[in-house]
Amino acid sequence: MGQGDLSVREALLDAALALLRLGGPSGATARAICDRVGVGAPALYHYFGSLERLHHAAVDLAFEQVAACYAPVGEDGDPYASMCRSWELLMAFARENPHLYGLINQQLVKGEMPPLARRAFDQLVADLALLNANRPLRKTPEQAAAILWAGGLGAADYAASAVLGDVPGITGAEVGIAIRGALMASLLG
What we know:
Layout (H helix, E strand, L loop, with lengths): L2 H21 L6 H8 L3 H8 L2 H17 L11 H18 L1 H12 L5 H20 L6 H24 L7 H16 L2
Helix pairs in contact: 1-2, 1-3, 1-4, 1-6, 4-6, 4-7, 5-6, 5-7, 5-8, 5-9, 6-8, 7-8, 8-9
């Protein structure tokens, strides 16, 4: 692939990601993506084979952004603070990108966890093992990570839904804080 090929491919991917972020799949049509890049539909099919594959590649790129929300233990060495920061970053991503978060969630429901998300999960397990050394957990670090992961995805789902629709009750941010607090309280001995 030449330099021009790479830039057109990247431009298509960036346009798809931007349009998916704004309006989900219904806004990220082949025509809208190609118009945004200034190329014809054959370019999209040349680089990605189908609109569905382009959407999938864009969602994979978004997964990288979500996985980057997980901040491993920082210089302060406090795994609890790290997990709280990571949780807040995930909630913010879901609130700021509700359509995109919905597409990510659809892939997760299908059992498709990209390698970067897997690494973030494994880092969460490692950080929980660190936490367990100072503040005993009621579950193994692996079990605690699964519980926090599921709770985080549920809270992020609520946060995204609250932005997109008329969800009764408290705000997505408040739900996220409440769920995180309840989960951590249930996991810590």
